[in-house]
Write a structure and sequence with these properties.
- By secondary structure, the protein is an alpha/beta fold.
- The protein contains ten helices and 19 strands.
- The chain has helices at 17-28, 47-54, 64-80, 87-103, 147-150, 162-171, 175-178, 194-201, 205-209, 279-283; strands spanning 8-13, 32-39, 57-62, 109-111, 116-120, 126-130, 153-154, 212-215, 221-225, 246-251, 256-260, 266-267, 269-277, 290-292, 304-309, 312-317, 322-323, 330-335, 338-347.
- A six-stranded antiparallel β-sheet has the order 14-18-19-13-16-15.
- Helix 3 (64-80) runs antiparallel to helix 4.
- It is globular.
- It starts with 7 loop residues before the first strand and ends with a strand.
Length: 348
């Protein structure tokens, strides 16, 4: 880098608090920042206003076709298989970070407003690592990012808590951003249940599936339901159930939903497809690893044992049990704070 030349970075911006804070922090650290505003679903914020407010160039990129092909359609397919997919994990790897990587010249860094860190381990591999904020940590959602992306990544919010970021923004005159309500949920569902989204996209599906059997574990019929895509493990919403009862299984072939006790949802072993794991941990059977089976909520404590079984990876919990697993969800492996692999839950 020539004397006096500032390091450049492309930042994925959305008009929200976190990406704005990432831009402003990087500017404060001396980076030359270019904002990349991706149009994926619905109308994006005005790029001109965002540019003026942040004091940077903001480029708008239309990625709606890619988002539909890589995120929305796979989500629909997974739901129809009776799975509970995690489209945000897919979007981060297949759209957001991939687009940044392809747009930015090779000497330009890449950044987002995610609350996690990037570290380089002793073997030279770059790893996503947990952020400072244990409540907001988003490392689980970035486990699929490849080395060519991680080697360029800058995550300025990883060493701060959400509360610290709000205070930092307010002190610099951006209290309107600091007070913004955080967006939650999957963007394209627009607050609806996955089943409602499927019915909108596939007219007639609701009528086809409505009225399937609601059963107990012995197969006794308890009533009817709206259709299996409306249900997932541990769910009570949308069902008139006695206290201490919830969904424990979904049978796609029969369009049947089984009701049981939350205690029925604990498992000690499960299997992953599309898995990847650092070789040292495949070789030692998973010694030193922990696993997360959801980004937010109850995760198993203690260690794991792993063993490849053909295309699958078997995972056994050595010190605890996992609760309310859902097929199609990621399971992500950690060595301390570092993400070292993961896969998609296929069987348990």
């Amino acid at each position: 880098m020539r004397m006096g030349m500032r390091k450049r970075v492309y930042v994925g911006v959305s008009g929200g608090m976190d990406s704005a804070a990432a831009v402003l922090l990087l500017k404060e650290r001396g980076y030359e920042v270019v904002g990349i505003l991706m149009r994926m679903w619905g109308e994006p914020p005005d790029a001109g206003r965002l540019s003026d407010r942040l004091g940077i160039e903001v480029k708008t990129v239309d990625v709606r076709r890619e988002f539909e092909r890589r995120v929305v359609q796979p989500f629909i397919d997974a739901c129809l298989r009776g799975e509970t997919p995690s489209p945000c994990v897919v979007c981060n790897a297949s759209v957001k970070w991939r687009v940044l990587h392809e747009l930015a010249p090779s000497d330009v860094c890449l950044a987002t407003g995610h609350y996690c860190r990037v570290v380089r381990d002793s073997s030279g591999f770059y790893r996503i690592a947990r952020g400072k904020d244990p409540i907001k940590d988003q490392s689980y959602y970035l486990w699929r990012l490849p080395q060519e992306v991680l080697s360029r990544a800058v995550l300025p919010l990883g060493d701060r808590t959400k509360a610290e970021v709000r205070t930092w923004l307010s002190e610099r005159g951006f209290s309107d951003w600091a007070c913004k309500k955080e967006s939650m949920g999957v963007c394209f569902l627009e607050g609806d249940r996955p089943g409602d989204f499927l019915v909108r996209r596939m007219p007639g599906l609701g009528e086809t599936l409505r009225g399937g059997p609601l059963e107990d574990a012995a197969g006794n019929r308890l009533g009817t339901h709206e259709g299996y895509p409306f249900y997932t493990a541990a769910q009570r919403r949308g069902l008139s159930l006695a206290k201490g009862r919830c969904v424990v299984a979904v049978d796609v072939r029969r369009n049947a939903v089984t009701i049981g006790s939350p205690a029925d949802l604990f498992v000690r072993e499960f299997w992953l497809r599309e898995w990847r794991l650092a070789e040292e941990f495949v070789g030692n059977g998973g010694a030193g690893l922990t696993v997360k089976v959801r980004g937010v909520g109850e995760n198993p404590a203690g260690g794991v044992e792993v063993r490849p079984e053909g295309a699958r990876l078997a995972v056994r919990l050595t010190d605890g049990r996992a609760w309310a697993l859902a097929k199609g969800q990621p399971a992500v492996f950690y060595a301390g704070d570092r993400v070292v692999g993961g896969g998609i839950i296929e069987k348990f």
